[in-house]
Amino acid sequence: MPQPFSLQVSQQAGASLISIGGHLDAHTAPEFETAIQTAVDGGQFQVIVDCTNLSYISSAGLGVFMSFIEEVREQGGDIKICGLVPKVRQVFDLLGFPDIFDLVDDVAAAVQRFAESPTRKG
Amino acid sequence: MNAIEGKFTLTVPSSTQNLALIRDFIGTLIMQTGLDENEVLKLTLAVDEACTNVIEHAYGKDNSKEVLVRTFLDNHEIRFEIEDTGLGFDPNAYQPDELERLVAERKSGGLGLRLIQTIMDEVRYEFEPGRKNSLLLIKRLRKDENREVIKN
After folding, report:
1. Beta strand A46-57 with B77-84: parallel, antiparallel or unpaired?
2. pLDDT-above-90 percentage for chain A
3. Domains defined for chain B, CATH in brackets
């Protein structure tokens, strides 16, 4: 059976850290969207999405990143995506997402990237 | 090449809750063809995207409807047929926007069709007005066959 979707929100070095796991598809994407919307509504424009435990993503999940990236960058922030396992990274690559999004290895790298390049890929 | 051949059919109520079930079914089936794990994932993703479109757009999230997925396996190709009786939509009439433009316009739509068109060798749409719509997704298994990629 597929792993259920999981989501935890915490703070990491001034950024909102959203850790997601399991399957992110059209059924579970609304929960993820709500988490990012809540961060943005709260004035938090530095968002780290930790995908270490994410085993599947479809376009519904990728669309959530798409719909917020411009807004957070306009506010001087960014969404840093980290911990992509190869199977999930493959889907990002299929759509050309590495050209648009800042993909880093882990949460520590994401924090460092915010320090070096808060709004755009370095 | 295939250890398994034939026609396999899955019918589920039209709900995004059933996408995981559809992926399990397709993934398990395709795994037996001998394709590598990455190819299995990509084909499963294409079917997920097609079914999501049916559930969310063709049926407008009406879960009294049903989504039907037929899978045909033989030595030459893997063919998926996703059938619905809702609002028709021809993906080949869809012109994907540039990713940068979607980002600038804060739009997230169209990514699923872009994935389907990237992953499959052929995408065909058959429409019988008032009866049914069928989306055919074809992946050829032999490298020496002509590759027909329909992209707009």
Report:
1. unpaired
2. 91
3. 6-140 (3.30.565.10)
